[in-house]
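Priority: low. Protein: Helicase-associated domain-containing protein. Input follows.
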Amino acid sequence: MSDENNSAESDICPESEECAAEDSFGFGDDLELNRFDGLPFSSRYYKLLKERKTLPVWRVRCEFEDALVNNQLVICPGLQRLGGIPQWCAEFCLSAQYQHGMVVCTQTSRQQAVDLALRVADEMDVNIGHEVGYTIPLETCCSSDTVLRYCTDDMLLREMMSDPFLEHYGVIIIDQAHERTVSTDILLGLLKDILLQRPELRVVLLAIPPFTNKLLSHYHSVPLLSLEPLSPAEAVHSHSGNKDYFFPALRLVLEIHRTKEEGDVVVFFASAEGTRLGAELGRMVPVVLCPGRVGLPTALSNQPDSKKSRRVFLSTTQGEDMWWAAESVNFVIDTGVQKKMVYNPRIRANSEVLQPISQCQADIRKQLSGPTEDSELPAEKAPQILESNISPTVLFLKRMEIAGLGQCDFIDRPDPEGLMQALEELDYLAALDDDGNLSEIGIIMSEIPLDPQMAKALLASCEFDCVSEMLTIAAMLSAPSCFMEPPTGMTHEAAQCHRKFQHPEGDHFTLINIYNAFKQSQREQYFTSQKWCQDYFLDHSALKTAEATRSELTDTLNRIELPISEPCFGTKSNTHNIKRALMAGFFMQIARDVDGSGNYFILTHKHMAQVHPLSCYGAQSHKQGLPEWVVFHEYTLSENNCMRTVYIQMAPLYFFYNLPPSESKDILQDMLDPDASRKCEEKQKDIPVSNQDDSGCGIGPQTYDRCILSAGISITVLNGFMGTSSNDHLPLKHESVSSWTE
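Result:
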């Protein structure tokens, strides 16, 4: 910082007035009362306060508050072990210098939001859920007394749909801005405009170099606080040419252990598979191995026994920001690579790629130990908005009535090809009208916290009287996988247990069976649902998440007054209706077995893929045969190019009529009888919807489904939410696309 700022700090909080400064924060007297609950501070409060005063952030406390009073936006370094976010939030709430509303702090991880809220509530000597709270997907722990709230970045973004200028908040703190999540990038763009509309609003951005330099250039003249860690990390680089990162990392663990130096070890692998394989070696090494699936508080509570005095935490990129509180960690082994899912808009699929970590990520890990060579790493972490499917983002921006991307000042603008694919997808889902604005269907879809395809399928289930079943499918697909990785030697037993839930119609129906069985286990008197999940090799926490997600989706449908049909799973008509509802959203994800051996040709991508081994048509294909046509939920470009969550037995002509005009439709027409397909399509255009019958095409009511699912015709049971149209939904005009992207 400049000398001017340093002099300002001395004027605000001089060393000679230390006691006065302490009194202003409410801890100068042993009998001082907590201003929030009126009770005397506990001894733990003073113990934590003493620890906080040793952190680097305490030295710039007054400088930070002065910068925030005199500027709308402040950029601060977000390095580990600086004590930044918890202390700054707490001190700002305790300070009386600036009070213009609630303080909110965003996190990229739901677990971090909860952990930080608990930590700060402890430091402020208050109860969680009162003065300090948190809001994460499916859980809210706040009250009317809350003055400091932690939340995930996507939850704050969703609040903007009802409160576009975030008027409930006086201070907004964006933590981990360098993570470049889609939600954080959108917030950074929208907050720039909100600051112009609300001069009293204050924004704090926390990031690590070199992203802080990019923030400075994006926001121009804003103050940047300077913080240094208590002690610099020593970086030791390995120059081995071995491309196998797994076993060299484990050998380093043993070498560190032989040195007899104190301290735990963190190993960053490229993927969760590495942490799982490493954990299986736990009986062979003289240390306590803690796989990355264990949360930080749980992992830290696993104290080493007398024989194994050192803990080794096995982590991935997703856990690199979770170790800021692990004071016992003195060593970090960083492989310097990561496996990522990168979305390819041309083929509408994710690709699993192995790539080096960024310099930002290396700097994060360097706070504990050294990364790989700086020159070998890209300077910045690629923003997720360039590597993800941005259809949900475009739907949100349309709902916010943003006429074009020029109104949202992104740090990195989305790729034009990805944007065009997102607009095309929303158009095919009937979420856009002919002018490129949200249709009435699109407005309802934006209210449902699901991807656009699943939201459209859930809406269609209202017409087909299978809402209860679609709620279960949507919840199970939104939650983490319910299938646990079986222990070594138990793979066959786990497969036998999972096979009991398999449904002959496909994986979506298998998920319904699992969820219904889980709900039944909760009503049993002689065993718990946890024990039931353990017996069947199912993840109890994932099923509880699905249960909470289903409850939230049910509340959403009730709020917007959509009908919820009674469950009737198992009947023939219900099974067919579920497929029809799924086709409403996933009609572009169709594949055909071209050779009878499981090599599926994906129409939209023109790629070859196989059904995933965990699918009911994967491992059991030798018994029940492979279906010729499938609709899949997810497809990933990887070593095996697998399709996940598939269902079958829908007539090919049904696929044909649900596809919008495209190359995929031409391919399907070539696969079928061209003359019969063309004749059936012409007949559908000539016959009014209300007078269609079963003659000619041989598919009965499916011609009517095409009109409902893709044309945006009125759905009478939706209580007046839908509009009416007599023509097929036309592709979005090129002019409207161009005007929105400019």
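DSSP finds 30 helices and 18 strands in the chain. The domain at 246-386 is CATH 3.40.50.300 (Rossmann fold).
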